[in-house]
């Protein structure tokens, strides 16, 4: 961490761009909240572990966007703390989806592939739109970066859900669905760890004040 600018940490002292940032977060919050309800119901009805995992991801993202709205424009310390909370939430989500996948291996049923494919496509369109909206904020502080990572992981997960639907349809087995759920759990764990690591680094940076700087004139005295 000798060169913090290489990790985008030196940009973290700049205040969050309130207008565009808040609007983007509100749009993302509404989209993710709506998709949680739609995809969650479809996942339960179709028996798809991947859809249920993706719906929980939408719920977690909606909560994360709400937290980001609450700390937008506040000091770096509060934004880093919010990012740390979101990173821990993503780690918890990854653990929950991992447990759900294991349960699906033991007692799951083959999901309905057409429902998986259709909802995966709708979710992909929603997440790509949100990711494009948030793309310009991907190199900000840990709080901004966490929002971008959530959106990026969602889009990747939706592509995986559609591939799982094709696999279930082609094989008549539930294994493609379970494999995708496991991949989504790994993405959540990896993304959560990235966010926690950067947030902790920012908090250490705030707690360690820079050394005092003396002018040349002061030194001559």
From TrEMBL:
Keywords assigned: Membrane, Transmembrane, Transmembrane helix
Any Pfam family: Cation_efflux
Localization terms from the record: Membrane
Species whose genome carries this gene: Caulobacter hibisci
Source organism phylogeny: Bacteria, Pseudomonadati, Pseudomonadota, Alphaproteobacteria, Caulobacterales
Membrane disposition: Multi-pass membrane protein
Membrane-spanning intervals of the chain: 23-42, 62-80, 87-107, 113-135
Domain (Cation efflux protein transmembrane) ranges: 25-203
Name the UniProt record assigns to this protein: Cation transporter
Main location: membrane
SUPFAM superfamilies (alphabetical): Cation efflux protein transmembrane domain-like
Matches recorded under InterPro entries: Cation_efflux_TM (IPR058533), Cation_efflux_TMD_sf (IPR027469)
């Amino acid at each position: 961490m000798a060169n913090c600018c290489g990790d985008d940490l030196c940009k973290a002292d700049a205040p969050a761009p309130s207008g565009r940032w808040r609007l983007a977060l509100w749009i993302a919050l509404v989209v993710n909240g709506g998709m949680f309800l739609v995809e969650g119901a479809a996942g339960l009805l179709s028996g798809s572990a991947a859809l249920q995992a993706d719906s929980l991801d939408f719920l977690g993202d909606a909560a994360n966007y709400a937290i980001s709205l609450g700390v937008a424009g506040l000091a770096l310390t509060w934004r880093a703390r919010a990012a740390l909370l979101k990173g821990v939430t993503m780690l918890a989500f990854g653990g929950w989806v991992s447990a759900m996948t294991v349960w699906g291996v033991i007692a799951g049923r083959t999901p309905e592939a057409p429902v998986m494919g259709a909802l995966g496509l709708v979710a992909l369109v929603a997440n790509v739109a949100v990711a494009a909206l948030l793309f310009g904020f991907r190199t900000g502080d840990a709080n901004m970066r966490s929002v971008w990572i959530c959106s990026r992981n969602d889009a990747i997960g939706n592509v995986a859900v559609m591939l799982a639907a094709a696999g279930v349809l082609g094989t008549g087995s539930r294994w493609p669905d379970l494999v995708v759920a496991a991949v989504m759990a790994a993405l959540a764990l990896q993304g959560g760890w990235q966010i926690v690591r950067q947030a902790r680094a920012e908090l250490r940076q705030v707690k360690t004040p820079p050394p005092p700087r003396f002018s040349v004139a002061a030194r001559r005295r």
